[in-house]
Amino acid sequence: xxxxxxxxxxxxxxxxxxxxxxRAARWTSLAFSLxxxxxxxxxxxxxxxxxxxxxxxxxxxxxxxxxxYALAADGLSLSLVGLTAFLNLICVAASWDLDxxxxxxxxxxxxxxxxxxxxxxxxxFLFYIFWEATLIPMFFIIGLWGSDNRxxxxxxxxxFTFAGSIFMLLALIAVVVLHQRxxxxxxxxxxxxxxxxxxxxxxxxxxxLLVGFGVKVPMVPLHTWLPDAHTEAPAAxxxxxxxxxxxxxxxxxxxxxxxxxxxxxxxxMPLLTLLAAISAVYGALCAMAQTDLKRLVAYSSIAHLGFCxxxxxxxxxxxxxxxxxxxxxxxxxxxxxxxxVGFLYERAHKRGLxxxxxxxxxxxxxxxxxxxxxxxxxxxxGLNGFVGEFLCLSGIWQSSLPIFAVLGVIGVTLxxxxxxxxxxxxxxxxxxxxxxxxxxxxxGARESGILWTLCALMLWIGLAPQPWLAALAxxxxxxxx
Amino acid sequence: MTPAQVPIVAWLLFLAPISAIxxxxxxxxxxxxxxTHWPILLSCAVVAVASVALAARVYADGSFDLNxxxxxxxxxxGVDFGLRIDGPCVAVLTxxxxxxxxxxxxxASYMKGDPGFSRFFLVFHLFFLAMIGLLTANNYVQMYLFxxxxxxxxxxxxxxxxxxxxxxxxxxxxxxTNRVGDFGFLLALLLILTTFRVAQFHIIYLKVLVxxxxxxxxxxxxxxxxxxIWAACAKSAQFPLYFWLPDAMEGPTPTSALMxxxxxxxxxxxxxxxxxxxxxxxxxxxxAVAAIGAFTALASAVIAGTRKDLKRILAYSTVSHLGLMxxxxxLGQIGVAVFHLIVHGFFKAALFLCAGNVGHAIHQPTANxxxxxxxxxxxxxTYACFLLAALSLAGVFPFGGFFSKDAIVDxxxxxxxxxxxxxxxxxxxSAFYIFRMLFLTFHGSRPEQKGLSAHPHEAGxxxxxxxxxxxxxxxxxxxxxxxxxxxxxxxxHGLPVSVGGVALQMNLPGSxxxxxxxxxxxxxGTAMAAIGAGAAYALTMIxxxxxxxxxxxxxxxxxxxxxxxxxxxxxGWIADGVTGxxxxxxxxxxxxxxxxxxxxxxxxxxxxxxxxxDASRGRLNExxxxxxxxxxxxxxxxxxR
Lengths: 481, 641
Hints:
The structure holds two protein chains of two kinds. Chain A is mainly alpha-helical. Chain A is built from 19 helices and two strands.
């Protein structure tokens, strides 16, 4: 079994093992998560060492309708695989004391398996299978272990993203059929399909792909499933959802949509950039109005992914590198924020801004980590968030549409407007009459350890992003144009 | 020069504060929080000595500028982080280190017993570190990093007593206003990288000068300059973004002293000093800087004369003096601007700490002229220091402020017109508000001042010694004139560059000249100070109740001054507008209209299928499992073939 296959098979085996190991499932889950992280590190190491040039391939003979088992990995894929494995381990550690059944642990392993598959697949059928397979564990994670409104949110999440994927599947089939007509050969291989003349169907195909991926990102106006899903999911679920699953959308646009329909993408660039800029500003504006801490972080994700798309659509080296780095950064930072909100919710079963107050006194460690992560999230230079945002904005500034960079910078400015008042209300303001702050005890050693890890990463990437950029840049060069 | 040849003192500027903060945070804060200040005070001493040594080195051997490591490089541009140690840097750095260290010493006494003592010192020192980083940065991105760190530290310090609503609000106002300014900085950064492909000052200067010598300015240069000025207006509290600074006195007094004298508000002026070759290359922009400075200086001097809270008077005074620095810069007098920045640092720190002592005597974070009065005898040391610093601020010969402020007035007079008028009026206004404050706080006895019945007394040695040193420094700061002139000159003229392998010298625009003693300046300066001080004497000592009477007799005027001529009202409306927009977007547009519309179609369909019932949830699960099984089968089939 090649290393690339192992990257998704190990979590799959982990899912089965967790499901079978009953009460010991958390230990099984920990062991497999560690193994997955070690594997992805092993895969990432040569890519980092050769500044991202290394490409690994695993293949098989095409089967029916040209479906083949084609996997490949470059810096972009492997860093997202690494992010998946890392956040999965973080989630296991964060959920350690939860009283949950073996299914919970199995679902997270299954999710990691499907996500790694999405990032590694180079056969579009395989890609689609893994893509849809991510929905199933996440549906259960939200629907079974979420908070009060979980069933509704799980259903909304499922229907929204499933409906989006249908468009994507139709578009993919169209590409494959067009390719077969032109060459007489059935293939789902992405590299082979690149350059297929899509003819008059091109705009429709691109639109289909865009809807499928745009729902996942989510790009305004396709975003309304996200606040509900994030809010109702358990903390670790939100971490995976925001940390990795949203990146599937950006990844799909980068890996599939832009290479398959480059001319349409170029022609639609103004519209796409406008939508991305709207996402960045609109997400921030909506976040300002939220009274639920988790919803606020959810809307901030929409804004951040808007920056990411700005970078992607800019088509410049800076923008693409920024988008790729922002995907990693957002996973770390928003992951930390969702965990912290989750810790609050575990303790007090409340999430409202007005339900707390005075937590800086009662839980100083929680306050410190929350403040640190917020600063990374609003793009304080020296922390990771800034690097990605800055590169994305720089990319868009150098594209043909610099005016959208101004909108993006307005989004950066607004980030402080939603984040800091919320922080002040929860941690600084005195406790109000209905405050549940008394139930909040400070973070324990395990929880602090998780957050130290995340915060150290934020600082590291913020101060020395160059190794990460060097690993990502070569894999991005070939993607657009 | 290689990194190995960088003098050890330059490394110490960072090593000492970073290790003190880390040691304090990880070891002392959990174990012995009341000792947090010791490593930090030690670090202050190291930084003070190191910065003086570095200044001496630059004075003797000239400056250096080198890169250490590549921060980020993508495509055709890259940003390196490094150090630029030149004249303007070390001149300001030395003042920041000395004044900042004295304020640290004061804070050790002032904050003693506060439950947040440890947190205070850690953030306070972070503030200090951020300013050192800002001054020594050799490129715009690195400067922006520390610029924002300064903003963060100030936010945490202004909101230090976060239990108070006013402190929370002031902290938020400061941070968000600065964020609005950063909007300009960030855009400028993007433009700079797009235009020049580098962020390093040195290379940008060279490119701008080469282009300018060909009679050509880059397309975006006016915009870059304007955006940098906008950013500086936020940090250095200039119109239209000055309004956060007067509220920022909600933090503990040492914070105000550090922020006003050394670590925050001077950052904007320093940014403009660093950017001067860019701004000077655009016709009209320097005049705009001067106009902003002159207007802000005058308007805030007027408002300072009407405030009652001691720290607020000083805050408006800072705004006014920063305006003077901007005026000097705008007139191309970089040496004078740096000189006044340094002298101002000394006297403003002394004044703020004096106000802190007055507040301490009535056990309050700040004091109001209603509560204190006639304390000359009760607080003799504080009074003497205040007097020295006030004389310096008012520009009375031979105190420090005479040389620096009157050099600015002198430049304004040479320019003539409105600038001259503004310069003279600001001189009168400065003398008026500072002597009004002096007389109301320390002289006379007025029935309106309730605090007369209290028995104030001088606090301990730790409260007095730093102020004495600062006040003496402000009195003698004029002696620094030739040193600063030479340092600034070294930073502007004869910079070594190599173009195509040929070693050349580069001269940046702006003048380092600082005029020395002149009879004209003595006469004019003294006359203006006398008018201001005389008016203050008449309206506080001869007619002792005037300050209370006019407030009663003309409430409309009170409103005008309380709202800063209506500007604060307008800002309030803008803030409300943004909040309202957010509420509309989040609650109405997104939740009610858009999500509502989507859900109503969805729930209609779901309702028809009865999917929301529990039984059907089972059916959905079943469907999902079938789908997964089918997918697995297909996958397996694909793999087998």
